[in-house]
């Protein structure tokens, strides 16, 4: 079995597939604490029917064979940058149409502001779409 290069196989959510591109830089972290930089080499054109996400692959160098076949890992893919806010998950709400957002205060009045989740972390939820002044 050839393990250099090795492939990280994962899924791109339906919500993020529009920003996914071949050649994007990625950082893969294994459960054995190996951090390896790689590039996106494959994105499926059709979704997985069960998950509604798109299979994708990241090619990683593995010259020393430290990354074994089948090991669990997570990937962070650099899809560019945008202003984001870190919020407690408890602040997220839905409007009457089911749109995800948060309540803000503008001129002493509550105002619903739609947004989208960029990343969910232990520290909170990184969200996009809020005014920079929030």
> Would you tell me the structural class of the helices and strands?
mainly beta
What is the CATH domain class of the largest domain?
Mainly Beta
Domain count: 2
Distance between the termini: 52 Å
Shape descriptor: elongated
Rg value: 18 Å
CATH topology (fold) name of the largest domain: Elongation Factor Tu (Ef-tu), domain 3
What is the tally of beta strands? 11
* CATH-level-4 superfamily name of the largest domain: Efflux pump adaptor protein, beta barrel domain
Strand proportion, as a percent range, falls in over 45%
Average of pLDDT = 88
List segments where confidence is low: pLDDT < 50 over at least 5 consecutive residues. Answer: none
Q: What is the share of helical residues? A: under 10%
Strand order of the largest sheet: 1-4-3-2-5
Structure description:
The chain is mostly beta strands and 134 residues long. The protein has two domains: 6-77, Beta Barrel (Elongation Factor Tu (Ef-tu), domain 3); 84-128, no CATH class. 0% of the residues lie in helices and 48% in strands. The chain has no helices and eleven strands. The strands form three sheets. The chain has a five-stranded antiparallel beta sheet, with no helix packed on it. β10 and β11 form a beta hairpin. The termini are far apart. The model has no long low-confidence stretch (mean pLDDT 88).
């Amino acid at each position: 079995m050839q393990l250099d290069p090795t492939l990280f196989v994962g899924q791109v959510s339906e919500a993020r597939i529009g920003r996914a591109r071949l050649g994007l830089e990625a950082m893969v972290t294994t459960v054995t604490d190996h951090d390896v930089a790689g590039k996106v080499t494959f994105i499926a054109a059709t979704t997985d029917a069960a998950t509604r996400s798109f299979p994708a692959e990241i090619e990683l160098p593995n010259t020393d064979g430290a990354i074994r076949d089948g090991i669990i890992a997570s990937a962070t893919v650099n899809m560019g940058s945008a202003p984001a806010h870190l919020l407690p998950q408890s602040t997220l709400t839905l409007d009457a149409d089911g749109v995800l957002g948060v309540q803000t205060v503008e001129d002493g009045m509550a105002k619903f502001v739609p947004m989208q989740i960029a990343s969910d972390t232990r520290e909170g939820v990184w969200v996009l779409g809020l005014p920079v002044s929030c």
